[in-house]
Amino acid sequence: MIQRLRAAARARFADVVLDIYEWLHRKAAIVAGSRHAARFGRFGRGSLICFPPQVIYNEHAIHVGEDTIIGPGCSLTVGMAPGQELLAPTMLEIGDRCVIGRNSAIAAHLQIIIGDDVYFAPNVFVTDQNHGADEAGVPIGRQTQPERPVSIGARSWLATGVVVTPGVTIGEDVIVGANSVVTIDLPAGSIAVGAPARIIGHSNSDRPPR
Q1: Inter-residue contact 49 to 70 (CB < 8 Å)
Q2: Domains in the chain: how many in total?
Q3: Which of 14, 80, 153, 162 is deepest in the core (most CB within 10 A)?
Q4: Which is more confident, 135 or 107?
Q5: What percent of the chain has a predicted confidence (pLDDT) above 90?
Q6: What is the pLDDT of residue 8?
Q7: CA nearest neighbour of 172 among 184, 161, 186, 192
Q8: Are both 188 and 106 inside the same structural domain?
Q9: Can you give the residue range of the structural domain that contains 13?
Q10: Does residue 131 carry a catalytic annotation?
Q11: CATH classification of the domain holding 130
Q12: Coil, strand, or helix at residue 38?
């Protein structure tokens, strides 16, 4: 009898915790008009950042377009630390109607521009700065290479686990396959896969890359 009561209490407790978690997912998103959204340089109407966010800082240099959804567990960071003096007033731009999949991370140190209607699957990573290994005896984590801007064209699709490295320009209507590492520019309409990514075709067989 006592075991049954304990089991029932445990089940009830689990239900309550899950109900609270689901409520937070619905109610604790960052939405236009909220105090947290006001920290951003721009936060478009109809956009939201799902609960729970991961790391977000220097929001004043981040512009989010309209009707864009940023999934749970995502990181949006500008510079190296909160409150840092930045290189430009706007360093991360995400267009209208984009979807940034859960647990993705975008780290801007100079400029990252994401066009309209771009879709990220989960666990995509985009950065415009990397580490170097030129100084003997200096930990690689303390060696940085110059920032190089990144651009991702409108209507492109980055599948699960894609990494976009500094200096890359991805054209419009590009498809990048799962777990690819993009180290070269990808022309509009191309399909790329691999680590490092290579072009294997075009998203419209009747139209060569523009």
Answers
A1: yes
A2: 2
A3: 162
A4: 107
A5: 67
A6: 65
A7: 186
A8: yes
A9: 1-29
A10: yes
A11: 2.160.10.10
A12: helix
Least confident of 79-88, 120-129, 162-171, 187-196: 79-88
* Complete edge-to-edge strand list for the sheet that includes strand 150-152: 42-43, 62-64, 92-94, 112-114, 150-152, 169-170
- Looking at residue 60, its amino acid is H
Residues in CB range of 116: below 8 A, 6 or more apart: 65, 95, 96, 97, 98, 154, 155
Q: Which residue has the higher pLDDT, 171 or 16?
A: 171
Cross-strand partners of 112: 92, 150
Residue 9 has pLDDT above 80, yes or no: no
| Contact between 155 and 115 (Cβ < 8 Å) | yes
Closest CA to 80 of 159, 165, 144, 35: 144
Q: Which residue has the tokens 């445990």?
A: 10
Is the alpha carbon torsion for 16, 17, 21, 22 positive or negative? negative
Task: Answer whether residue 146 is part of any domain.
Answer: yes
Q: What pTM did the predictor assign?
A: 0.85
pLDDT in tens, 160-209: 999 999 999 999 999 999 999 999 999 999 999 999 999 999 976 455 44
What's the pLDDT score for residue 208? Answer: 47
- Catalytic residue, chosen from 60, 63, 109, 131, is 131
**Contact (CB, 8 A) for 143 and 149:** no
Q: How far apart are CA 210 and CA 206, in angstroms?
A: 12
